[in-house]
Specification:
The complex is a heterodimer. Chain A is an all-beta fold. Chain A is built from no helices and 9 strands. In chain A, about 0% of the residues lie in helices and about 40% in strands. The chains are: A mainly beta, B mainly beta. At the A-B interface, strand 1, strand 2, strand 3 and strand 6 of A face helix 1, strand 1, strand 2, strand 5 and strand 6 of B.
């Protein structure tokens, strides 16, 4: 593994454009009962997050004041903390009333249950 | 096959970089770091969303700080991925701390997916005010 000199690297000047959002990386997993969406949102707590659904569009948005987190005294800067925003269009396969969300270790986990009519069903045959 | 996958991943990141903005500007290394050279301390922040405390290994030896991270996708291996943008695997960065520090002062904590490492500078490395007679 190569050593990296982090303390005399030239600082890259990154401007934070306020009002600009970062698109969080997402994994979407399908299980029998639901769709799981996992989004990377380091630095975000539960109270800084808005999730809403309007016209079948699910929008996730954070609202943190990152001003005091600016990297003025950085000698190496590889990332900028900024607010996140991402939207997903939902179709009839999702049960909108039972969506669950939790955030842990900088990962937002959304559970979108499949609507009842999509789940496998066994049909009983009546004796004639 | 494995290498192909990584190349594709890099290409994907390159493409994404155009969309995803400055957060992913240095996509060849993991984890991404911000380093602060403060008066008394050196502070390092690393982005490690989803990584548990027990999957991080920090060592300091001969001025080298090694950060090893094992990022696994948990229980999802048996499930079907419709989309995968997050990267998984074992990652390592070796950082040369070329300012004298107190090795016993190194502290680390994880907060909302950000690893914070703090170390005290040795007396000799701290800025000193020189009295003019």
């Amino acid at each position: 593994m190569k050593e990296e000199k982090i303390l005399d690297k030239e600082k890259q000047d990154v401007k934070i454009d306020e009002g600009q959002f970062i698109l969080p990386l997402a994994d979407i997993i399908e299980t029998e009962e639901s769709f799981l969406v996992e989004l990377e949102m380091p630095g975000i707590k539960k109270e800084n997050l808005d999730i809403n659904i309007e016209n079948d569009i699910l929008t996730i948005k954070s609202n943190v004041d990152f001003k005091d987190k600016s990297c003025l005294k950085c000698v190496t800067q590889e990332f900028v903390l900024q607010n996140y925003k991402r939207s997903f269009t939902l179709n009839h396969t999702v049960d909108l009333d039972n969506i669950k969300a939790e955030i842990n270790d900088g990962i937002l986990k959304l559970t979108l249950p499949k609507s009842e009519r999509l789940k496998p069903k066994k049909i009983e045959i009546k004796a004639g | 096959m494995y290498l192909d996958l990584i190349d594709n991943m890099k290409k994907m990141r390159n493409d994404m970089n155009k969309v995803f903005g400055p957060y992913y500007m240095d996509y060849d290394v993991y984890p991404l770091l911000n380093v602060y050279d403060k008066e008394e301390n050196i502070e390092i922040e690393a982005l490690i969303p989803g990584v548990k405390r027990e999957d991080i290994e920090l060592t300091y030896e001969n001025n080298l700080l090694t950060i090893k991270v094992n990022k696994s996708n948990g229980l999802h291996e048996q499930h079907k991925y419709i989309r995968q943008e997050r990267e998984y695997g074992k990652f390592e960065r070796v950082l040369k701390i070329n300012i004298p520090i107190e090795p016993n002062s190194i502290e680390a904590k994880v907060d909302n997916g950000i690893l914070n490492i703090k170390m005290k500078k040795s007396e000799e490395a701290k800025p000193k005010k020189i009295q003019i007679n």
